[in-house]
Amino acid sequence: MLASSTMFHELLRTWFQWVELWGYTGVFILMAMESSVIPVPSELVMPPAAFWAAQGRMSMAGVILAGTAGSYFGSVLNYWVSRWVGQPVILKYGKYIFLPAKKLALAEEWVLRFGAPGVFAARLLPVVRHLISIPAGILKMPFGRFTWATILGAGLWCGILSWFGQEVIGSHPELLQSPEAMVGAIKDKMHVILAGIVLLGALYIGVQIFKKKAASPNPLLKSH
Length: 224
Hints:
By secondary structure, the chain is an all-alpha fold. It has helices at residues 2-22, 24-34, 46-54, 60-93, 101-122, 133-138, 143-171, 179-189, 191-215.
């Protein structure tokens, strides 16, 4: 356990250095990894890049664009690989990419029920953000719908993280010396945003259920 924890901390520091040394390229590569099956925390990528943008080393628009492009690239890889190999292969090997059968079934149900808006919403949620493209590929969601949902969701998430990077790291630049502390601080501050996202998601689901009930014929109104 100690060895794996030490290894993860070293990975955090390595990824953090990629952002610092490689700039936009580092942001693109790491966000592509984050949106595929490699658990790179996006909180480690976008906030420090946004902080350095505020210091004049990069532009804020460039950071958000690089992050969004990387997220889209990683998601597209997931989508097409999943679409090509199909559900049986994902069911067999999904546990190795943190997607066991039960979680895959729930993700597929989500995509079936809410379609592209569901993909957009999932891009804003932890854990499922990088996995939602897999059921979208398995279910062969039209690529155009998948594209706009992914780009909009990824762009919004990158924008939120960048804003938080300016706010949190700008007030506490010492966090740049500790990637682990920085991730923890960002996650602590993200609770309000995540609560708002969950609330909006719940409202969206409620509206969809109401629409379905309104569209279904009322048996009491049927003529006899």
